[in-house]
Design goal:
about 325 residues; alpha/beta; FAD/NAD(P)-binding domain; D-Amino Acid Oxidase, Chain A, domain 2; 2 domains; 8-stranded mixed beta sheet; 8 helices; globular
Length: about 325
């Protein structure tokens, strides 16, 4: 069977974009080397929260995504969504409270990919024959790499995905709370006697051993914010998030740097060209770089991507498209 899309990666990015493509009527196969949620997504606290105390394009994007994703999870996956009041933010001198929430990470990934073909396979090589991609025997017209901080088999010097390793904890306490706190650490409301607390951030570190001392420090920080009586760490999670060099997420077509520089020799010397005229890899997309906000950003961006696809538009906003990195990088090559 030739699928419309082969999605590589079983985290929240891959699950979200597979879900919206499938819902729009496209045939999808999701390829994941070690199972859904193996990377950072499976270990995530999966908080959906606002950035009302900040300004700028990134905060605006996050807040649009938060508004969308809160409604999305509540409408379609309410069984795995936990709504709560979140911290108080000072905005222009006023104090307000907002609705936020969190989802059950692994259960959401399984629910979103229900009805979608999921294969456990490690993609290391790309083959294309007569306009069709063949990845380990799975055929598709388009590829979306949603591999997080993990390697994918296109080597472009302008694409640099930074790993952020971290761990979080589940804490059992009889203290009942209904407020999600985001301070030095994030602390969930109590759900069946469990509070999620996290997470640590080790930038540019792909993997490290779980540290029980670090788990203890997470709990100490949480107890300074919320008095959790008889708190006991019941479980520790760890995983690697992905982040871009400018902190914005990444979704879109991948520029072929060599062919674009051959097409436009003067681009190395600073001459500007429209990104629409760059040379792109045929029918290949990249979706990554969420930082710690994958469960907020991924559903919203996936929805926008599929809406563009249906309307025949090639590009999303410049600040999420991969071509922004090529434009910055190539100016330094002269």
């Amino acid at each position: 069977m030739i699928h419309d899309f082969l999605v590589i990666g079983g985290g929240i990015g891959g699950a979200s974009i597979s879900y919206f493509l499938h819902r729009a009527g496209y045939s999808v196969a999701l390829l994941e080397k070690r199972g859904l949620g193996f990377g950072g997504s499976g270990a995530a606290g999966a908080f959906i929260h606002w950035k009302l105390e900040k300004d700028g394009d990134l905060a605006k994007l996050n807040n649009l995504a938060t508004s969308f994703s809160l409604k999305f999870y509540e409408k379609y996956f309410s069984k795995h969504f936990h709504k709560a009041v979140s911290d108080y933010y000072k905005i222009d001198g006023d104090i307000t409270k907002v609705i936020s929430g969190m989802v059950d990470a692994t259960l959401i990934l399984k629910a979103m990919t229900k009805g979608i073909r999921v294969y456990e396979t490690n993609v290391e090589e790309l083959k294309r024959v007569s306009g069709v991609w063949n990845l380990n025997g799975h055929e598709g017209r388009n590829i979306i790499f949603a591999t997080g901080a993990f390697h994918f088999p296109i080597h472009e010097p302008y694409i640099q995905i930074r790993p952020i390793w971290g761990q979080r904890i589940d804490v059992h306490s009889p203290t009942k709370t209904r407020l999600i706190q985001h301070n030095e650490v994030s602390i969930s409301q109590s759900i069946w006697g469990i509070h999620r607390i996290g997470a640590t951030h080790h930038r540019n570190i792909f993997s490290k051993e779980v540290s029980y001392e670090e788990s203890d420090r997470l709990l100490e920080k949480a107890l300074k914010i919320v008095n959790l009586e008889d708190a006991v760490i019941s479980k520790t999670y760890s995983g690697t998030r992905s982040a871009s060099t400018d902190f914005f997420p990444i979704l879109g077509k991948i520029v072929n740097s060599n062919e674009t520089m051959q097409k436009f020799p003067q681009i190395r010397n600073g001459r500007a060209y429209s990104h629409e005229d760059y040379v792109y890899y045929k029918n290949i997309y990249l979706f990554t770089g969420f930082g710690g906000h994958g469960f907020t950003l991924a559903p919203y961006l996936s929805y926008k991507f599929v809406q563009n696809l249906k309307s025949g538009k090639e590009f999303l906003d410049d600040f999420v498209e991969p071509h922004r990195f090529f434009t910055r990088w190539v100016k330094k090559q002269g």
